[in-house]
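User: Could you go from structure to sequence for me? I need the amino acid at each position, not a summary. Structure tokens:
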């Protein structure tokens, strides 16, 4: 077992019924059935994590605007009572089958930081409590007093499209939460990569702004024929009408012409358009032969 698996194993033992050596061996063989939510080792921390996870998943019970009024200790205690598990020094361990509606947080961005007193790494997204612990490790009151020496992304290709100069921890953490949310919806990561490819942000703050405005972009089907049908749906035609005129209308030609008007761009991650306004002519230098 690696260190992470050992931490999970310790928690799994705490939340399992252990009567003899056979039970100890059984739990060891079932470590993969458990998850570890790092740094969540109290009802308050668990309550805050449940609220964060709920916000990502659109749970109306935990809007961020209401966080100052939420009783995180009560939320955490109720979740713990309903789902079991165990708090350990490394975090909260519970069975995967009991983990809904929260899921194990994944590292999206890792920052290596250095201060005059210490060095530390922070895995993002992180809660306020986790960030405060990193500050204490570094011996600083704010992250501006520490230098970011390395930025790593877990999602492939992002390191080539998101600038890592002039990064601040707060922006990186907000972007990591946004990326975490994208993973909950099919196609959102590919859309974001397409947007980054076209918009070419100059700073991480720019990349964060595009992530926050992702609804302003639309992924486009590669097939011009299908895009023609999509255009008709956009202006109000239903599928019954579209199927009726199929064979009497050149959907492919409509799709090709509208792609030009919409400023559709081809990227290595697929076709993309901006809904509020077409991409500028400078960014429309696309290979039109690839659209047919």
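Assistant: Here is the amino acid at each position, in order:
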């Amino acid at each position: 077992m690696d260190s992470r698996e050992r931490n999970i194993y310790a928690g799994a033992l705490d939340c399992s019924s252990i009567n003899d050596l056979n039970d100890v061996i059984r739990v060891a063989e079932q470590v993969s059935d458990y998850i570890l939510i790092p740094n969540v080792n109290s009802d308050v921390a668990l309550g805050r994590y449940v609220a964060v996870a709920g916000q990502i998943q659109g749970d109306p019970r935990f809007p961020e605007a209401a966080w100052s009024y939420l009783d995180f200790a009560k939320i955490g205690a109720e979740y713990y009572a309903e789902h079991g598990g165990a708090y350990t020094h490394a975090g909260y361990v519970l069975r995967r089958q009991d983990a809904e509606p929260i899921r194990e947080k994944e590292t999206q961005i890792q920052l290596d930081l250095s201060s005059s007193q210490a060095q530390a790494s922070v895995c993002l997204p992180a809660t306020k409590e986790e960030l405060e612990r990193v500050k204490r490790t570094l011996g600083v009151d704010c992250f501006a007093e520490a230098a970011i020496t390395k930025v790593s992304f877990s999602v492939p290709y992002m390191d080539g499209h998101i600038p890592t100069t002039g990064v601040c921890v707060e922006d990186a953490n907000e972007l990591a939460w946004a990326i975490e949310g994208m993973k909950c919806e099919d196609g959102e990561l590919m859309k974001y990569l397409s947007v980054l490819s076209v918009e070419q942000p100059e700073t991480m703050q720019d990349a964060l702004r595009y992530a926050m405005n992702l609804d302003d972009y639309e992924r486009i089907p590669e097939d011009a024929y299908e895009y023609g049908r999509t255009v008709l749906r956009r202006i109000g035609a239903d599928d019954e009408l579209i199927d009726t005129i199929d064979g009497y209308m050149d959907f492919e030609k409509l799709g090709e012409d509208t792609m030009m008007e919409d400023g559709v761009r081809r990227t290595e991650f697929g076709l993309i358009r901006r809904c509020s306004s077409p991409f500028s002519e400078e960014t429309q230098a696309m290979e039109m032969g690839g659209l047919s």
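One structural detail worth keeping in mind: Residues 217-291 form one domain.
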